[in-house]
Amino acid sequence: MTPTEARLPQRNNLYGHPAGVATRLFAFFVDLFTILLLFTVGGHVVSFVLSIVLGSDVHLSDSSLASSLALLLWAFTYCTYLLSAYSCTLGMAAFGIRVVRLDGGMLDTRHAVVRVLAFPLSFLVFCVGFVLIVLRRDRRALHDVIARTAVIYSWEARSANLAFLAKRAPNRDRH
Amino acid sequence: MLDSVFETATEIVQAVAYEVTPMVVGALDVNGVVERVDIQAIVERIDVERVIDRIDLQLLLERVDLNALLEEIDLNMLMDRLDLDQLLARVDVDAIIERTDLGSIISRSGSAVMIQIVDGIRSQGIGVDSVLHGWVDRLLRRGGSDNHEATARLSPSAERFE
């Protein structure tokens, strides 16, 4: 055990291991909900402010192209900022997973941007990019492969709920 | 000769004393005598600390059977005699709550409940992951998923997010 390892807190046996497809899917849905909720609320706020400033009713939803572009821009900003600053989005944080570089380091802005830009590619051809999570032994999706990143479990199991998983994975105690 | 005279005289004196003493005591005003004694001055002259120093409290306590003493106490009777309503009325509950930092306790217990809920949800996610990937591994006839390079070499800098 190295001095660094000795300083690390005790974690469950899955800490630092590749996150599974279900957890990542749940996190994705939480992020999707958050992005849409914030966008909707933000859109109404902006519409309200513009209506007051311009003195006439403004409905941003009237322009579907502008709304779509704004939504894409907002989603890109949300994901890129959170990933580069915290290595995880809100959904990921909720489910205890985070994105790291292949060398195990923190995600920097460049990797975050590449990962977010490559993310839509995973939806192409019947979401084959996501199927890779199940098929690949390292559980990396297409956008992970492109951005040279990985998604790992990053939470301490405070409850005893994971005891059965720890017994199933005797060789997964490397951190 | 002298001895017999001396014994006879002694007997006479004793007989007189037996007869006279009760009369003298009866005639004495004991309360008056006690009132004239300055008890406060006597007490002040006693060096209480020195007296206490000479008492071996440890030895005294060892000789006291506290269990037997407690058994003899009728707590029910004691409680019956206590006017708890009056006692509680004198307690400043607001001051106690202010000193208790109740908000912090509620906050901590609330956080603990939230942690349990979040951990439960995460555990369920990991459980589903385990089942799904187990099925796929069996279908593809391979062992468990490998750790890739990132997971094998988590850098200490990554710990800042914990």
Short description:
The complex is a heterodimer of chains A (175) and B (162). Chain A is mainly alpha-helical and 175 residues long.
N-to-C SSE string of chain B, H for helix and E for strand: HHHHHHHHHHH
Contiguous uncertain segments of 5+ residues of chain B? 147-162
Strand order of the largest sheet of chain A: 1-2
Individual helix count of chain B: 11
How many runs of DSSP E, i.e. beta strands of chain A?
Answer: 2
Number of separate helices of chain A: 8
Fraction of residues in helix of chain A: 55-70%
Give start-end ranges of low-pLDDT stretches of chain A. 1-10, 169-175
Main β-sheet description of chain B: none
Mean pLDDT of chain A: 82
| Relative helix content of chain B | over 70%
N- and C-termini, Cα separation of chain B: 116 Å
What best-fitting shape of chain A do the alpha-carbon axes yield?
A: elongated
Secondary-structure element pattern of chain A, one letter each: HHHHEHHHEH
Beta-strand content bin of chain B: under 5%
Pairing-aware structural class of the strands and helices of chain A?
A: mainly alpha
Q: What is the chains' assembly state? A: heterodimer
The number of domains of chain B is 2
Number of strands of chain B: 0
Q: Structural class of the secondary structure composition of chain B?
A: mainly alpha
